[in-house]
Design goal:
Layout: E1 10-15, E2 22-27, E3 32-34, E4 37-39, H1 41-49, E5 65-67, H2 68-93, E6 95-99, E7 105-110, E8 115-119, H3 128-143, H4 150-197, H5 211-224, E9 229-234, E10 237-240, E11 246-247, H6 250-257, H7 265-268, E12 277-279, H8 295-305, E13 318-320, E14 327-328, E15 335-336, H9 339-350, E16 353-354, E17 361-362, H10 365-376, E18 383-384, E19 391-392, H11 395-406, E20 412-413, E21 420-421, H12 424-433, E22 441-442, E23 449-450, H13 453-464, E24 470-471, E25 478-479, H14 482-493, E26 498-499, E27 506-507, H15 510-521, E28 525-526, E29 533-534, H16 537-547, H17 553-557
Parallel strand pairs: 12-13
Antiparallel strand pairs: 1-2, 2-5, 3-4, 6-7, 7-8, 9-10, 9-12, 10-11, 14-15, 16-17, 18-19, 20-21, 22-23, 24-25, 26-27, 28-29
């Protein structure tokens, strides 16, 4: 199974520096792929607004993030800028030339603010013969040698008046036609100008579906139409996702999950879109009788046979094959003794949060942040209790110590009621006695059994695996816990820091003092000769060997 490759780094959650919202974000100065084109948001700010953003070359990635909403608005602004520049170019270059048959030129010039139509002045050819004849007629009428009668003059002037009238009518016709043509051209230009400024027709916007929505749609479709078993976990305990009932046996978990309707999964987990854990020991199709063992094969079967729509993505679920004993990774076939170790291992294959220092993988950003604190912590630093001086490796360990030892506060709360307990073991016992949980962890190497997994694991590591990491520098003895080594060191130093408040006896170990304290309150073993009392039978035997030599326990009992 391959790990999905993103088209660019995504930070979830992240603080957008453009709107201040905490959403899923991208980097401003990293190139991303959008609909087959490369885009870098810092360059888009510079091209569109002439704005050069700061702090883009730093190592802190949280200072150069932008959310999906601001990216959409930035794309719209860039598209609007391109549209305005295109219309300006068309407006400045537009010109229309109309040629009349009489070589009359009508020229229209466009102005962004006002549309004007300029019509070139029309010069008609003058009739020189007509002008000369009119001048001669006036001259002859005033004082010419040959005088014409009034009737003859009227006869000669009649055709000239008709000719002038025809010319005036033709001039008016030309002016009318030119005026009409100019009005038509003016209306055409106004219409073109309006269409140039009008935005292009909008395409119907498709509903935006992000990566999380696609993953949730796929996993809901898989769960509704197959026999896979979704579950939740708390360390190595399994919980039903529908009713949160606890199961230690994965077989019982699978049988119980079949009693719930898988179609309710979409409504229960619509808000919580984190990657779920799914047991794929049995997949099979619910819509037909097809037996399927592989999840990719099942997805292809749903699409081709039943027409179910699935997005082309992978790793929308965490896949496990839950068994009673050894758990196996479905990717690399590595085996683990308990589920918590397997889940931590699965982060190597599916975890998207990676430490840049050591390469550790995590599913969540907060887990990675906690891990990074370990790298920044100075070596050898410890957290000391102000009350007793005891040292701890973490703040949480010191907090639990102060709450339980000094403040006498219960810190372990039951998940099914409001009861709070001082220890993990007491909480487990409460769940068994009050809520009816079935807890029984039997040791595979001996006949001992425990009611909580922590005690069973500690017993296995201490008694059978012989895990001892703490070594005495004097006698080379190994111990499982550091407190055991500290108690052992008193045998070399001779310190007796634990003193009885009744008789003043001191002991090197607290356990020895507690056993001694029972001698003041409860004496079960009494010597038949001197009436000495002891809290343990072994103490009575030692007393008899030392004080009453030659006698055995059987004679004393008789």
């Amino acid at each position: 199974m391959s790990v999905p490759k993103r088209k660019g780094p995504v930070f979830d959650p992240g603080l957008c520096r453009c709107c201040g919202s905490i959403k899923k974000c991208r980097l401003l100065n990293v190139e991303y792929d959008f609909q087959g084109q490369k885009e870098m948001y810092a360059d888009m700010f510079m091209d569109c607004f002439g704005l050069m953003l700061s702090h883009l070359d730093g190592t802190v990635e949280s200072e150069r993030l932008i959310c999906a909403t601001c990216v959409t608005r930035l794309r719209d602004a860039c598209d609007f800028r391109k549209q305005v520049l295109l219309c300006e170019d068309r407006l400045l270059q537009a010109s229309i030339h109309v040629h009349q048959p009489s070589d009359t030129l009508v020229e229209i010039e466009l102005n962004p603010r006002d549309v004007k139509v300029e019509v070139e002045r029309i010069d008609y050819p003058q009739d020189n013969n007509f002008m000369d004849s009119e001048t001669n007629d006036d001259h002859d009428a005033d004082g010419g040698d040959d005088h014409l009668s009034s009737v003859e003059v009227k006869k000669e002037m009649q055709p000239r008046k008709e000719e002038r009238k025809r010319k005036k009518e033709s001039e008016r016709e030309v002016e009318r036609r030119v005026r009409s043509l100019g009005n038509k051209l003016r209306s055409m230009l106004e219409k073109d100008a309006k269409s140039a400024y009008a935005p292009p027709p909008k395409k119907p916007r498709q509903p935006c579906i992000d990566q999380e929505d696609k993953e949730f749609h796929n996993r809901a479709t898989i769960i509704e139409n197959s026999y896979v078993c979704p579950f939740e976990s708390s360390y190595s305990d399994y919980h039903c996702v529908y009713c949160r009932e606890l199961f230690l046996d994965p077989t019982l978990l699978r049988e119980h999950t079949l009693t719930h309707d898988p179609k309710t999964y979409k409504d229960l987990f619509r808000i919580n879109k984190k990657m779920p854990q799914i047991d794929i020991l049995r997949i099979d199709c619910r819509l037909c009788e097809e037996k399927i063992q592989d999840l990719d094969t099942f997805k292809n079967h749903l699409a081709t046979t039943h027409g179910k729509h699935l997005f082309k993505i992978q790793n929308e679920v965490l896949q496990f094959k839950l068994t009673d004993n050894h758990l196996t990774c479905v990717v690399c076939s590595e085996t683990f003794g308990y589920f918590h170790a397997l889940k931590s291992h699965m982060a190597i294959h599916y975890g998207s949060c990676i430490c840049d220092i050591c390469g550790a993988h995590y599913f969540q950003e907060r887990r990675l942040a906690e891990h990074l604190k370990r790298h920044s912590r100075k070596p050898g630093i410890k957290y000391t209790c102000k009350e007793c001086g005891k040292e701890f490796k973490s703040k949480n360990g010191r907090y639990l110590h102060v709450a339980t030892v000094h403040k006498n506060e219960a810190t372990y709360q039951c998940g099914k009621c409001e009861a709070v307990f001082f220890t993990y073991a007491l909480r487990c016992r409460h769940r068994i006695e009050v809520h009816g949980e079935k807890r029984q962890f039997a040791c595979d190497h001996c006949d001992r059994s425990y009611d909580n997994r922590k005690s069973w694991r500690e017993h296995n590591r201490r008694a059978h695996l012989k895990v001892s990491k703490h070594k005495c520098d004097i006698c080379d003895r190994m111990f499982y816990l550091p407190c055991q080594l500290k108690e052992h060191m008193t045998t070399h130093t001779g310190e007796r820091n634990f003193r009885c408040e009744y008789c003043g006896k001191s002991y090197p170990r607290l356990r020895a003092l507690r056993l001694h304290m029972k001698s003041h309150s409860d004496n079960k073993y009494r010597c038949g000769i001197c009436d000495a009392t002891f809290t343990q039978n072994v103490s009575l035997r030692n007393h008899v060997k030392k004080q009453h030599q030659g006698l055995d326990m059987e004679s004393l009992n008789n």
